[in-house]
Write a structure and sequence with these properties.
alpha/beta; Rossmann fold; two-stranded parallel sheet; 8 strands
Length: 322
């Protein structure tokens, strides 16, 4: 059944680089839509610097280093954090409706609250392109409870499915408010992350990722006229399985070295947090080459190179669909 759902909401086709430029449009746009504004909601994957422009959840360098900014660049648009008055509302560790966030912070705006903030001062306009992602923070929060022994895996999966449905509800809310072009991104396979390896919970995290995406797709299956689902799960799977096919070399090692003594990205204290890692070119070309060849910046989130790959893939799907 889920295969039919994926097709009905325009499942992205994963393109390896040999086919990428020809079949997926590379980094340019060819669609009829010429967006006048780019608006984004979500978690760390889409956070373009709401805690500071050098506090994104990736290697903080001077490049286009998030998938959201990669999509924006394809339309010659700029997007700035909502904290600076812009339309990039996504926040690291943000959950969909629940608090506290994945790192235990109650002040972080949920995705629902991000949309509340946008709708309190604006509304979707005719040629807005809206990007929304979510799921990882809810899974991290619930999985951490399982690891701590305070939640059963069965209950975790129930709550993860509820979170997927809740994200679908927020997508529907945007459509009901007049949004015509909405790009929805679920969660990548968290069972393939360095965190999954460290905790020996790969199977549990893979199951949670699948259940979240299934619930999300069920919740938006009738919104195909306005909604494009771009499949990060299968795209990232392809990169992790065969990174050299995408110009990368390492899909298992964390490239950042910035240990966060606090709660960081929700995976425990004393763990690497890419949001506090500022790239130091003093290490020479080897450092530069290293982070541009790796998939993971920290235990959960992607390097600039991986973000650009996914952003270009998403851009090509938007151009083909809209």
């Amino acid at each position: 059944m889920i295969g039919n759902l994926l097709r009905r909401v325009a499942l992205v086709t994963v393109c390896v680089p040999a086919l990428w430029l020809a079949a997926c449009g590379g980094g340019t746009t060819v669609g009829a839509l010429t967006p006048t504004r780019l608006i984004s909601f979500g978690d760390a994957l889409s956070d373009i610097g709401n805690s500071g422009t050098t506090s994104k959840y990736t290697v903080n360098d001077a490049t286009v280093n998030t998938w959201v900014e990669q999509v924006a660049s394809g339309y010659a648009l700029t997007i700035t954090p909502s904290a600076a008055g812009g339309l990039g509302y996504a926040r690291g560790n943000a959950r969909i409706t629940s608090k506290p966030d994945a790192a235990g912070q109650a002040a972080t705006l949920t995705i629902t609250e991000q949309i509340d903030a946008f709708l309190s001062t604006s509304k979707p306009q005719e040629n807005d392109l809206i990007l929304i992602n979510g799921g990882a923070s809810d899974i991290v929060s619930q999985a951490s409870a399982v690891i701590a022994g305070t939640l059963t895996e069965v209950d975790m999966l129930t709550q993860v499915k509820q979170a997927g449905a809740e994200l679908g509800g927020q997508v529907r809310r945007l459509v009901q408010q007049g949004a015509k072009y909405v790009v929805v991104v679920g969660v990548n396979n968290l069972g393939q992350t360095p965190w999954a390896t460290r905790t020996a919970k790969a199977t549990m995290l893979t199951n949670a990722s699948i259940k979240f995406n299934e619930a999300l797709l069920l919740a938006i299956v009738d919104l195909g006229n306005q909604v494009l689902y771009v499949d990060l799960y299968n795209y990232a799977n392809a990169v992790v399985v065969a990174p050299t096919s995408f110009g990368l070399t390492d899909a298992t090692t964390v490239v950042c070295t910035s240990v966060d003594a606090g709660s960081g990205i929700g995976t425990g204290s004393g763990q690497v947090n890419s949001a506090v890692f500022h790239h130091d070119f003093g290490g020479g070309a080897e450092v530069d080459k290293k982070y541009n060849s790796y998939v993971f910046a920290d235990g959960l989130y992607f390097t600039p190179a991986m973000n650009r790959l996914f952003g270009a893939n998403a851009l090509s799907r938007v151009a083909a669909r809209f």
